[in-house]
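hey m, so remember when u said the tokens were messed up on ur end? i reran from scratch. heres the input so u can diff it against urs
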Amino acid sequence: MSLIDESSSQGDEVDFKALKASNLCLAERLKLEHYDCTECSAAIKGEQISFALGFLVSRLCVRGIRYDRNASFGAELSGLPDYPEFTRALNARSIMSNTIPLMTFPEGFPSCTWHPDIPSPETYRELVRRYPQMSY
């Protein structure tokens, strides 16, 4: 993002409050490199997605997604082929909540669907029926 690149090269701080108020699209947020300890802590707990997602550490919200029993935390991050870690976590959470998601690309298939919750045997049977490649 040019505003951030310009201000970073000058050593100035970017006004992230103003950026948040500007309603940047998700694609732009995925480019923002800004660490906010409070936001990352909230993301890990499943309370809120970090605004700036450019740093890998900001993507710790996958833990929050997996632990959110309402299966709604982070839903806006679903289906991003360039960021499969989000889709995998969202798909795993859905499966652990006994809902089988529509999975359209292999990188979005979760490898762990039993932590922190275990889906019902019926869910596993239907999962393997729909996605035989997940019968491990």
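this time it looks ok to me. Helices lie at 2-10, 16-21, 26-29, 37-44, 61-67, 84-96, 121-130. if urs says something different then somethings off w ur setup not the seq
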